[in-house]
Each structure stands twice: as structure tokens, then as C-alpha cells.
User: What shape does this take?
Amino acid sequence: SGAQDTDADDLFEQELRRANAEMINEHPARVLRAFKQLTHKHPHQPAAHLHQAQALEQLATKTNNKQLLLDAIESYKRYLAFEPTSIGNDVEYCDAAARCIEHLRSLGQLQSTVAIHKQLIEYFPHEVKQRNQLTLTQLIFNNLLAVQQLAAETLKIWPQDALAQLYYGLALKQLTADYAKALPFLEYAIASEAAGTQQAYFYLMLGETLQRLGQQRKALEVYRRGVEKNYFASIYQRSLYNVPELRAQPFWQPEETGYAEQLQQLQRHWREIRNEALGLLSRAGYFEDETEQLRDTGKWQQFELFVRGQQLARNCQRAPLTCRLLQQFVAASRCTRGQVKFSAMQAHTHVWPHCGPTNTRLRAHLTLQAPQPELTRLRVAQQERTWHEGDLLIFDDSFEHEVWHNGTQLRLVLIVDFWHPDLSPQQRQRLHPI
Ligand code: LMR
Ligand code: MN
Assistant: This one.
């Protein structure tokens, strides 16, 4: 029967080559049919599923077709269901797993991604890489508790591993705000320059950690290195989602934005907008606490009206006048990379230095209540301003900014993000929402 097996294998190899050859002819339907036949006839051949996955993946990329990508993922999963020992090629197996994971991550399918990671960890228990990849998936999905637990487990076995240290430090910073504890992990990992540690986001997190510990000089060094590596536009402008060559300056005048008319139209109604906001503030549970760990001390709350270019129906019903006015300012209300919201800051609040995510929007504050302008400050890069009732403050929040409220009374503003005026309509349409 050995000879028969060899014959069968030869036959399979031939059919596999034939199916692969269909790829050259660029007839998607024929390619799909050839691989369907092949996997149907040889369901126990891992190579049939692998090559089917790769063919589908290639077609999916070329035609930008989501269903083909889903089919490719299913083929990858069928291939990965074989044990690596039965396949006899660990590199090929791990490569396929990595591609499948990449697709699943981009589709937001956490559970399936984790399932593949778990299998890899079981098959390759001595490879720290497999555990770090699982931790990275949890980081991408912003499951910081899982990141912290996984990284801690990894460090028990591999205490010197730079990636595990990086993930552990990140989780500590974002989750527990224990900056002193997080710092050595982040510093060690980034200084190691180990594969996977050199990314803009990680430099940003290390710099922020240093700033929050009062180590401003060291933070600037980190940012300077980030600029050298082309992660940041400048030491002060550290947004991660950027379009090159847009005008970049900390503060803007209404006339410079090209939206002076729309902004002034809002300004003309500032008292009515203020009254609407104050009405909402007086009711418990409408405004929500800021949740991004940006606050050092104090109390800072928001009430959102438009998010990523979508109006929040329930909140707009509660602020109909403001929302109606914003409908007229389409570059703001339809800006998929910004928000429109009321921002209420109580006395004795300090907001840590931070950068917005993108240089593709500008941020206007329409000041609704600011009884003590001399006791409040907004720093953007190296310039400072304060709020005056009824006035507009326009800044580019991709630059580092910091807020102090050392007064005794509430400061209330309407935050209006709008598209950077240098972006064409086509660019605005193509940019993915943030
Ligand atoms: C910020 O973007 O961090 C500030 O504009 C928020 C605020 O309310 O001052
Ligand atoms: Mn901000």
C-alpha cells in the first residue's frame, strides 16, 4: 500500500499544481472552482486547505472583496486544525496562523483570534513570541486587564522579555495610573529596540509616563527620538493618524480656517447654547466623566452631541437648538474624525499634557461660562490662552495641550471639531473614522 500512497500523493501534488496554475489565468471563478474541487476530493491534505486559503486571500486583496476574505479565513482555519506535527513544517504553520490572525484582528473578531493564539501557545509552549502575540491582540482590542494578566504571566517565565515588559508597563500606565511602577518596564523595553517595541504609540506612552512623573526633560528626549524615527511630526505635534503637509500651528484665527462664517453663526447664539447646556448640567446623569485617564486632579465632564460625524439622537433631542445650529456647519457635524460636545470643567482641575489622535481636524471652543479667565489656562505647544465668555478659541489638538482650572467656579465650553481646511472633499470622504 506504500506504493499506492505515493501514487495518491503524486496525484494530489499534480492537482494542487493545476489549481494553483489557475491563479495565473486570473479567472476568479475558475480558481475558486479548482480549489473547491481539490479540498473536496482531498479533505485530509493540509496543503489543499493552505493553498486554497492563499488563493482566496490573494483574490480578496485584489478585488477588495470581504466575502472572499472571510472564505480565506475559513480555509486557514481548516488548515490550522491539523496538528503541526502531522504537517511537519512549523514555519509554514506559524506563518499561516500569523496571516489568519492578522485578518481576524482587522475584522474585529476577538474570540476567533484568541482561539488561534491559544492553540499556538499549546503547540509551542516554549516560544515566548506566541504569548506576546496573544497579549498584543488584547492590546489592539484595548482589553487592558487581559493585557496586564497575560504580560504578568509571561514575565513569570521570561522576566527579561522586552515585549512582555512593554505590554505590562502599558497596562500599568493606562489601567492603574501607577506611573512610577510602569516607567522602568516601558524604559527598558523601548531602550532594548527589540522587534515589536519600536512604534510611535509606545514612544508616546513612555513620554506621557515621564511627564506625569514630572520628568519633563527626559520626556522631551523621548519625543525627540520619536521625531528622528519619523513617528511624530514634531516634538509637540504627536498625533498618530496624520495626513502630510497640512498647515500646522497651535492656535488658529477664525478667518484662517475658511469657516469664519459658520463659527460666527455659532458665536452669535452663544447665550442660547449656554442656556441649553446649563439646563442639561442641572440634571443628574446627563454629563459623563472623561474616561481616557487624561485628568490629573479635579472633575471634568462631557455631554456629546455628534461623534465621528454621527448625531447622537437622544442627546440631540435634549439639546435641539445647539444641534440644529450644528447641522448648518457640515464640516463639523459630519466630521468623521471629531466630536461636538459640551465640556464642563470644575474648579481645581488639571488635565495632563496630551495630544489628540489626528492632525486632520481642528478644535474650536465656544466659551459658554468662564467667570475667572485669569485663573484658567489652556497651553497648546508653547503658547497659552484662556477662555472669555462668548469668545471662540481655536486650536489644533494634535499639538500637545494641557489645561489648568485654578478658579472656584465652573468653566463650560462647546467643543466643535471640524475638518482641517486643507483637506479636499475626496480626502475627507476616504479617511477612516476616529
Ligand atoms: C481638550 O481637548 O483636552 C480640552 O480642549 C478639553 C477642555 O474641555 O478644555
Ligand atoms: Mn484634548
